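**User:** My hope is that you can spare some time for a protein that puzzles me. I have put the entry right below:
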Amino acid sequence: MDYYSLIYFLIFLSIIITLVAQLFVSVSYSKYKKVQNSKGITGAEAAREILNRHGLGDIYVTETNGFLSDHYDPTRKVIRLSKDIYQGTSIASVSVAAHECGHAIQDKEGYGFMRFRSAMFPIVNFSSTAGYFAILIGIVFGFVDLIWLGIALEIIILLFQLITLPVEFDASRRAIEEIKKNQFLVAGEQTGSKRMLTAAALTYVASVLTALIEIFRLILIARSRDD
């Protein structure tokens, strides 16, 4: 395989990994969004009960717009749940809400990887923008040193994504524990919840793989310009 063929193959591989990961989580979410939990508990109710049990009554649970836009904001101490999750009584609603509560519990306990990830936010925001422009300018004008600088900044983003993996997997583990402990779902529903949360976590694995491929592709470009 020649140089250009390899470059195009890596681009194609990145696209395929991203699409497969997104398809996997979308299919899993769509499936369990249609299955109502037998107790009729909403995502908002599940989140509120989990937070209260952990002494996190000061954390708000609010409804937000968007599709799968659910997240925990550690700065403002608020869990934002999309409409389907906040109001929904599906297995997916309870699972996603419990996952975001997992992040809130991590924050309370000072979970190391979460602290490290939060500390990296300003650096990552800078790296994502500066790295893109450094690589673009380096390729257009033939400044190889700028390309290598951009690669270094991309590696910082990769490190952030690697740190995100244990944060997300741990939040899902905590969610599964809370669902069992609080008996939000019966046995069969818990199995579906675990499958859905695992599918969601695998999207972060896909992000790491695509970042690795992108860095390898950029290294090939930089080395070709050095020759």
User: Anything to note?
Assistant: The chain has one domain: 3-226. The chain has a mean pLDDT of 94. Helices lie at 3-33, 43-53, 83-87, 91-109, 112-141, 144-182, 187-226. The radius of gyration is 20 Å.
